[in-house]
Amino acid sequence: MLPSHDAPSLGFRGGFLAGRLQDAFHFPALNTSVSEARKRVLARLREWGIDEVACDDAQLVVSELFTNAVRHTDSDKVSCQLRINAVALRIEVADQGHAPTEPRARCSGADEESGRGLLLVGALSQAWGVRPDDTGRGRVVWADLPHGRLPH
């Protein structure tokens, strides 16, 4: 799936708002933070009653987006926002620094060990894209995933 660039900022900080479940967190821009982000996402989605397949997909997307922000920007921290509505789980990962190029999916060679992350994000997402963050210094990469939430 090709990225879309017109997704609005979610602008929330944890809790429940107008029928939506939401959470926000940040970690230092370190390789070790990627696994911490995955754990946080899994715990929150399980708390919200999201099915295991959707939890697995969300963890993979967060892992790829967090890794890209850590590796390809000069950020001190990486932020993540989660929001669920009736239609989708929105994942946003924001960095603080500029990378030389905009994130894009690319085809990697068979022997390359990296470079497929955004292809995975596109395959798992209903839509994904990139936009400037609210400060104009960093960027936000977002993805909308089906969440498989069980009705209560």
* CATH structural class: Alpha Beta
- Proportion of residues in extended strands: 25-35%
Which blocks of ≥5 consecutive residues have pLDDT under 50?
Answer: 1-18, 108-115
Count of alpha and pi helical runs: 3
Proper CATH architecture: 2-Layer Sandwich
Round the mean pLDDT to the nearest integer and report it: 80
Distance between the amino and carboxyl termini = 32 Å
Name the strands of the widest sheet in spatial order: 1-2-3-4-6-5
Pattern of helices and strands: EEHHEEHEE
| Total of domains | 1
Q: Which fold does the CATH topology refer to?
A: Heat Shock Protein 90
Q: Percentage of helical residues?
A: 25-40%
Radius of gyration: 15 Å
Q: Please give the largest β-sheet.
A: 6 strands, antiparallel
Annotation, overall tally of beta strands: 6
Shape: globular
Backbone structural class: alpha+beta
Classified in CATH, the superfamily is Histidine kinase-like ATPase, C-terminal domain
GO molecular function: protein serine/threonine kinase activity
InterPro entries: Anti-sigma-factor_SerPK, HATPase_C_sf, HATPase_dom
Protein name: Histidine kinase/HSP90-like ATPase domain-containing protein
Domain Histidine kinase/HSP90-like ATPase: 27-142
Topology readout:
Layout: E1 15-17, E2 20-28, H1 31-47, H2 52-72, E3 77-84, E4 89-94, H3 117-124, E5 127-132, E6 139-145
Antiparallel strand pairs: 1-2, 2-3, 3-4, 4-6, 5-6
Describe the structure.
This protein is an alpha+beta fold and 152 residues long. It has a single domain, classed as Histidine kinase-like ATPase, C-terminal domain (Heat Shock Protein 90, 2-Layer Sandwich). Helices cover 30% and strands 26% of the residues. The chain is built from three helices and six strands. It has helices at residues 31-47, 52-72, 117-124, and strands at residues 15-17, 20-28, 77-84, 89-94, 127-132, 139-145. Helix 1 packs antiparallel against helix 2 (52-72) and helix 2 (52-72) runs antiparallel to helix 3 (117-124). The radius of gyration is 15 Å and the shape is globular. It starts with 14 loop residues before the first strand and ends in a 7-residue tail after the last strand.
